[in-house]
Write a structure and sequence with these properties.
The chain contains 17 helices and 10 strands. It is of the alpha+beta class. A hairpin with a 5-residue loop joins β9 (306-310) and β10 (316-323). The structure holds nicotinamide-adenine-dinucleotide (NAD).
Length: 432
């Protein structure tokens, strides 16, 4: 069948869109999409992220997207009482951390450690006949490499960071041999993506000159396995409902450890907490997620990021380990006022302390999910807020939201059609 000729005269080609003022851009979008005045007004208001900051963070800004920040209470990390801000649109995530944290307070909360703030940048060398010789030539230049990298970012060096080491690997690929140089850099309190990418770009021409090859990609790896955070905690059997609950949770964990389908969802639950604190502090959620999932698959089988075991006293011990390339300077962390405010709530002045809190939240989140799944199921906890969402989707406003949500929960059918019917019935009754 011949393709139908488009009769749509709208065009997404808007020359100079990026040069327009934000509200002029919004006007252009409104015209394109036929937005109502109320929708335009909605986008025009940027809430507590001032327009001039939003426009410096990304391109072509027309508005902002607010996500709720909830506070996880009851959390103890390395002996410190801490309130943790979590930015997420998903119900039950914050409550789950509060719950899990409460149940391990009597054993001291969560204990953490980390491997130091080391990032890796990769430099790809191609068109090379003698990759093994090239590898050695690069390794011989370690002190030159240190000098070039450190000259790129003297501030980082002044702060105690900078070049740490190199690793050089020969890869056999479908496109022939490649020599991959890993620059290992201490990025202190920054995530370090820009810092190490600049170093890799500055070093690349030297590698080409020393080896006679051609350097190609120069970019960090998000598999930040030199920047690993660890968290562990103990839940006393008596605090979690006894041996039966503990064993049910262990059976749930063993399922995840044996099956990538289950492990993916197990890890998604962990990331519910990790991504929420990552977002609340203006960090790069995609970088953290990519690193976490690659780390989970490092053995060749996608596996849980946590491990669970029963102690000799019959209690439940959980550990979590994953790469967490988090910063408290750089990127949006300093520029975004809400990110700064969230760091202030946690009184965090070092990236490593943020790593600790994020790892702790990941472990707590996993405890809560395993317990819910292994006992009552997750839907029970989700239902109260889910019912409110459904009520709003059905058109309920103000006091109607709670009333409809209550009706849905009580009736045991949390569905939009049921909510719509009940809403219509109530409104009719009031109108009469
Ligand atoms: P950045 O370059 O904005 O800031 C880092 C710099 O801040 C350092 O190089 C240093 O000179 C300075 N600095 C000041 N005080 C410091 C301190 N106490 N510790 C460390 N450095 C200090 O930020 P960045 O962390 O290099 O880059 C983060 C941004 O890069 C994020 O927005 C991320 O989304 C983005 N990014 C990510 C990727 C990726 O993940 N693949 C790729 C490119 C860019």
């Amino acid at each position: 069948m011949a393709a139908k000729k488009s009769t749509n005269r709208k065009t997404s080609r808007i020359a100079g869109f990026h040069k327009l003022e934000r509200l002029a851009r919004l006007e252009a979008v409104a015209k394109f999409a036929g937005l109502k005045a109320a929708t335009k007004k909605h986008f025009a208001e940027t809430g507590n992220l001032p327009s001039e900051i939003a426009e410096r963070l990304i391109e072509n800004v027309i508005g902002t997207m607010n996500v709720p920040i909830g506070i996880a209470t009851n959390v103890i990390v390395d002996g410190r009482e801490i309130l943790v801000p979590m930015a997420t649109e998903e119900s039950s995530v914050v409550a789950a951390v509060c719950n899990a944290a409460k149940q391990c307070r009597n054993s001291g909360g969560v204990t953490t450690s980390n491997s130091g703030p080391l990032m890796i940048a990769q430099i790809q060398l191609i068109d090379i006949a003698d990759p093994e010789t090239a590898r050695q030539k690069i390794l011989e230049r370690k002190s030159d490499i240190a000098g070039i990298c450190n000259a790129t970012d003297p501030l980082l060096v002044e702060l105690g960071g900078g070049f740490e080491d190199i690793e050089v690997r020969v890869l056999q690929t479908a496109g022939g041999p490649m020599v991959i140089t890993h620059l290992i850099v201490d990025t202190r309190d920054a995530m370090g993506a820009n810092a190490v990418n600049t170093m890799a770009e500055n070093l690349a021409p030297h590698i080409a000159k020393w080896t006679g090859g051609r350097t190609h990609l120069r970019i960090l790896t998000n598999l930040a396995d030199r920047r690993v955070a660890r968290a562990r905690a103990l839940w006393k059997a008596k605090s979690i409902g006894g041996a039966k609950v503990r064993d049910a949770m262990m059976a749930a964990y063993h399922f995840a450890a044996a099956d990538p389908y289950r492990a993916t969802t197990h890890n998604k639950g962990i990331m519910n907490g990790i991504s929420a604190v990552t977002l609340a502090t203006g960090n790069d959620t995609r970088a953290i997620e990519a690193g976490a999932h690659a780390f989970a698959a490092r053995s060749g089988q996608y596996s849980p990021l946590t491990r669970w075991e029963v102690t000799k006293d019959g209690d439940l011990a959980g550990v979590l380990e994953l790469p967490l390339a988090l910063g408290i300077v750089g990127g949006a962390t300093r520029a975004h006022p809400t990110a700064q405010a969230c760091l202030e709530i946690m009184d965090i002045n070092k990236a490593e302390d943020l790593q600790s809190v994020v790892a702790a939240v990941g472990l707590l989140q996993n405890f809560a999910a395993l317990k819910a799944l292994a006992t009552v199921g997750v839907q029970k906890g989700h239902m109260a807020l889910h019912a409110q969402n459904i009520a709003m989707m059905a058109g309920a406003v103000g006091a109607e939201i709670d009333a409809i949500a209550k009706f849905l929960t009580k009736s045991g059918t949390v569905r939009q059609d049921v909510a719509e019917k009940e809403l219509a019935r109530r409104r009719n009754k009031i109108a009469k």
